[in-house]
Amino acid sequence: TVDILESTNHISYLRINTPFNTAWRLVSKGLSRQSIEVSDRNEADRTFKVQYDPEEKKIEDGSFSDEFDFIMNGFQGNDKEYLLKLVETNGQTDVVILNDEQKPTADEGGLKLLKVLRQSIKTNLAGK
Q1: Helix and strand tally (H, E) in the chain?
Q2: CB-CB contact of 9 with 3 (8 Å)
Q3: SS3 call for 47
Q4: Among the four 19, 25, 44, 53, which has the fewest Cβ within 10 Å?
Q5: DSSP three-state, residue 31
Q6: Which residues neighbour 51 within 8 Å (Cβ) at sequence distance 6 or greater?
Q7: What is the spatial distance between Cα 2 and Cα 17, in angstroms, rounded to a whole number?
Q8: Is the backbone of residue 74 left (phi > 0), alpha (psi -120 to 50) or beta?
Q9: What 8-state DSSP symbol labels residue 104?
Q10: Integer Rg of the chain from CA
Q11: Alpha-helix runs per DSSP H in 13-107
Q12: What is the DSSP letter of 18?
């Protein structure tokens, strides 16, 4: 299972019901499937540093109006850097987002990132 949970101090995290090695591969593939740029991955530290724009709107249908909008407005990415940390406990792995001080954060954009990652991992596990 893959669920978003909330700690007692209101910080959301993603729980993957697998050991670290499997979770590492699932997170890596989940980020890749969503075209989320990974600027650094460190398996020894169990971290992924990613660039993610929580406000990005995906092109829905590839219509002429979508292409025209892209041409007129160009690429206006508002990517933010997020540090994902994988923490294994009792055969389960939690994915938490850390701030600059390496502390778990309750950032709204980070929650969106966790939701996108959760859906990508669920789709992968369903074999789609």
Answers
A1: 3, 6
A2: no
A3: strand
A4: 44
A5: helix
A6: 36, 37, 39, 79, 80, 81, 82
A7: 6
A8: left
A9: B
A10: 16
A11: 20-33, 64-73
A12: S
CA triplet 114, 117, 123: central angle to 5 degrees? 140
CA distance 13 to 69: 35
Pairwise CA distance, residues 82 & 35, whole Å? 15
What pLDDT is recorded for position 100? 87
| Cα dihedral value 57, 59, 14, 22, nearest 10 | -150
Question: Which of 7, 31, 15 lies closest to 106 in space, CA to CA?
Answer: 7
> Which backbone phi and psi does 125 adopt, to 5 degrees?
-70, -30
Mean pLDDT is lowest, of 34-48, 60-74, 88-102, for: 60-74
Mean pLDDT, range 6-32, rounded to an integer: 96
Q: What is the pTM of this model?
A: 0.83
Match 């850390």 to its residue by tokens: 98
Structure-token match 């160009």, residue found = 74
Query: What confidence category does residue 87 fall into, taking pLDDT thresholds of 50, 70 and 90?
Result: very high
pLDDT at 84: 97
**Per-position b or e across 64-76, b if 16+ CB within 10 A of its CB:** eeeeeeeeeeeee
